[in-house]
Structures are given as structure tokens and as C-alpha cells.
Amino acid sequence: MEHLSQAKRRIQIDDRILDLGIALEMLLLKNSKKDQDQLSSSFRLRGSWLVGIDKTDRVKKYEQLKKIYGYRSDVAHNGILCDGSQEEITQVHKSFYEYLTLAENICQSVIKNGYPN
């Protein structure tokens, strides 16, 4: 919850996306001890199945989670979002509230139903 709250309060998009990614990792990857590729896959699959309504919605959420995980990895490992591409960073800004809503829905689902298995 703290990282989700920080993602809402921060000013810099790099910091916002990093906190959002961390919040989702904590929710979706609890007790996962797999290699990086499996973690990324579990992150996307668990999140999309947890809150997706139907196949089309799950695919959309899967793609959103893929982007969030990639952006979080950029900032965490390279220290910069989208290699500094202003065009891509602008797109992250435009999509951030969709990503935030997805994270809030996942958080609510975990609170109501417990962690995904």
C-alpha cells in the first residue's frame, strides 16, 4: 500500500513507475523464487487473470502489466526510463493513470480474495 501511495504522490514519472512496479511485484510475486523471465511471466499472468473480466480484457491487462514491468526494470536497472526517449516517456505519462487504476484493482482484489496462487 505504501508503494502504491508513493506512486500517486511522486512528481517524476521515473519514480512513479518504479513505485507502481514495486507495489505490483509485492502483490503478484509474493513468495515467488524463480528466475527473472519466470518472474516477469508470473507477474503478467497473475495480474491479468486476477482482475481480467474476459479473454480480451485479460490480454489488455497482460500487455499493460508487461509495459509496467519493463518500465520498472528500466528505472531499477538503468536508472532511466525508456532510455530517455521523450516520445516514449510522454506515452508513459499518458498511460500512467490506466496503469494506476489497474494496480488499484489488483490491490483491491488481493485484499478481498487473498494473494493469487
Overview of the molecule:
This protein has five helices and no strands. The chain is an all-alpha fold. It has one domain (2-108). The protein is globular, with a radius of gyration of 13 Å.
Tally of individual helices? 5
Structural class: mainly alpha
* E-strand count: 0
How far apart are the first and last residues' alpha carbons, in Å?
20 Å
Average pLDDT reading: 90
Shape: globular
Strand content of the residues, in percent?
A: under 5%
Could you estimate the helical fraction of the residues in percent? over 70%
Q: Radius of gyration from the CA trace?
A: 13 Å
Keywords:
117 residues; mainly alpha; 5 helices; globular
Q: What's the topology here?
A:
Elements: H1 2-9, H2 13-28, H3 36-51, H4 55-78, H5 86-113
Quick structural overview:
The chain has helices at 2-9, 13-28, 36-51, 55-78, 86-113.
